[in-house]
Write a structure and sequence with these properties.
Distance between the termini: 18 Å
Catalytic activity: L-homoserine + ATP = O-phospho-L-homoserine + ADP + H(+)
Function: Catalyzes the ATP-dependent phosphorylation of L-homoserine to L-homoserine phosphate.
Helix content: 25-40%
Number of domains: 2
CATH architecture of the largest domain: 2-Layer Sandwich
Pfam families: GHMP_kinases_C (PF08544), GHMP_kinases_N (PF00288)
Structural class: alpha+beta
Pathway: Amino-acid biosynthesis; L-threonine biosynthesis; L-threonine from L-aspartate: step 4/5
Shape: globular
Domain GHMP kinase C-terminal: 204-279
CATH topology of the largest domain: Ribosomal Protein S5, domain 2
Number of strands: 12
């Protein structure tokens, strides 16, 4: 059995406006992990965008790995883990989901569990509470997912959507807990029906690659954006400015504070140049969709296996 592995997990954006806690898209930014069996746990952070956790077993990725092992009645041997990340923390780009998915995959590889993608999503969802980010990171592409009270998870994924995005990544964090705390406990039947209809229209627009319509629906959410936008300074101004610069639509990425603009493919640089310097607290970054999902390679042969 190989005792060295590499795992690559893509970032993700969730919701896309009205697809609250259900729609996710994998992004071309990555958490990369190298693993080697060792005599004791050790984590080396090789880049920024990673949490400084003195005790490796307090690290979210290792917690996820040990939870996975325990679910299958096994114990995880200690490993030396080296990590690189392009995913900023607490910015609404699935940093916690990517760490959890990496941990599940770590246990899967080290213990040779031979888990299916659906098995991995079930473990990740138990830890995350909702499957949208984890589904995108595991499967890649455009995903719609739902978890039921009895633990069943349903997921749909599509890889044909040729959309292009620009991220507005701020120089400050917004914790998911804070973003959830401003949401109402309930919605009226009329609001729920309208919000659900908009989410359905958004899904249909993306699947048919009608991006102008998709952008319109991205900005019509009733579930969470009306409450969260006020937590993100300049967010409403960015939505207007992005539209004027040519974006089809702009929404909060996940729980924020990053914003996500849907743009015509090939216009990313022009779009960014129009807004250069207008919002100095935000870095504008073009990002394609990732279509591979989580990828692992073993030992030195470099043979990649899609997870």
């Amino acid at each position: 059995m190989s005792n060295k592995w590499k795992i690559s997990v893509p970032a993700s954006t969730a919701n896309l406006g009205p697809g609250f806690d259900s729609i996710g898209i994998a992004l071309d930014k990555y958490l990369e992990v190298e693993i080697e069996l060792a005599t004791e746990w050790k984590i080396d952070n090789l880049t920024d965008n990673l949490p400084d956790v003195p005790n490796p077993q307090d690290h979210l990725m290792i917690i996820a790995a040990e939870k996975t092992a325990k679910m299958y009645g096994l114990s995880l041997p200690p490993c030396h883990v080296s990590m690189k990340s392009e995913i900023p923390l607490a910015r609404g780009m699935g940093s916690s989901a990517s760490a959890i998915v990496a941990g599940v995959e770590l246990a899967n590889q080290v213990l040779d569990l031979q888990l299916t993608a659906h098995d991995k999503l079930k473990v990740a969802t138990e830890m995350e509470g909702h499957p949208d980010n984890a589904a995108a990171s595991i499967f890649g592409g455009f995903t719609i997912s739902s978890s039921t009270e009895n633990g069943d998870i349903h997921v749909f994924h599509a890889y044909h959507i040729d959309a292009s995005f620009v991220l507005f990544i701020p120089n400050y964090e917004l914790k998911t807990e804070a973003a959830r705390s401003v949401l109402p406990d309930s919605y009226t039947r009329n609001v729920s029906a309208q919000a659900s209809a908009i989410a359905n229209l958004l899904t249909a627009a993306f699947l048919s690659q009608s991006f102008e319509q998709a952008g319109m629906y991205m900005e019509q959410d009733l579930f969470h954006e009306p409450y969260r936008l006020d937590l993100i300074p300049e967010s409403r101004d960015i939505i207007v400015a992005a539209k004027n610069a040519g974006a089809f639509g702009t929404c909060i990425s996940g729980a924020g504070p990053t914003l996500l603009s849907l743009v015509q493919k090939g216009t990313e640089k022009e779009f960014i140049s129009k807004l250069d310097g207008v919002f100095p607290n935000f870095e504008l970054v073009p990002v394609p969709i990732n279509r591979t999902g989580t990828v692992t390679s073993k030992n030195k042969e470099g043979s990649a296996v899609l997870s």
